[in-house]
From TrEMBL:
<dbReference type="Pfam" id="PF11512">
    <property type="entry name" value="Atu4866"/>
</dbReference>
<dbReference type="InterPro" id="IPR038646">
    <property type="entry name" value="Atu4866-like_sf"/>
</dbReference>
<protein>
    <recommendedName>
        <fullName>Agrobacterium tumefaciens protein Atu4866</fullName>
    </recommendedName>
</protein>
<dbReference type="InterPro" id="IPR020955">
    <property type="entry name" value="Uncharacterised_Atu4866"/>
</dbReference>
Length: 105
């Protein structure tokens, strides 16, 4: 694995449910880190620099948590139960699961 780039290693770790030898998911290097919110504010998804995400729904804080990998403008998710999903960033807007998320400013 030493010859792999961080995004590939992170993708393998995410898809297999394994972690790196340091015991954590490799840091992500992309411009999308931060809080993303639906227009009505009901769903709030925080993309963390360590390759993890934390999603709140309504009053349910941390309703879903898991790993993610960004490749270009595409994001792949794998929650801690094994469910997978994906999305696309277009003009600083996240399109994911039929929903639209805006960066929280």
């Amino acid at each position: 694995m030493k010859n792999m780039t961080i995004p590939v290693a992170a993708a393998i770790a995410m898809l297999t449910g394994t972690e790196t030898s340091a015991g954590s998911t490799p840091p992500q290097a992309h411009p999308y880190i931060g809080m993303w919110v639906t227009g009505d504010g009901h769903i709030r998804q925080e993309l963390l620099a360590n390759g993890r995400y934390d999603e709140a729904r309504g009053n349910r804080k941390s309703a879903y948590q898991g790993r993610y990998v960004v490749t270009g403008n595409h994001i792949d998710y794998r929650d801690d139960t094994g469910f997978t999903a994906d999305g696309t960033f277009i003009d600083d807007v996240l399109h994911h699961g039929g929903m639209i998320f805006y960066r929280e400013r």
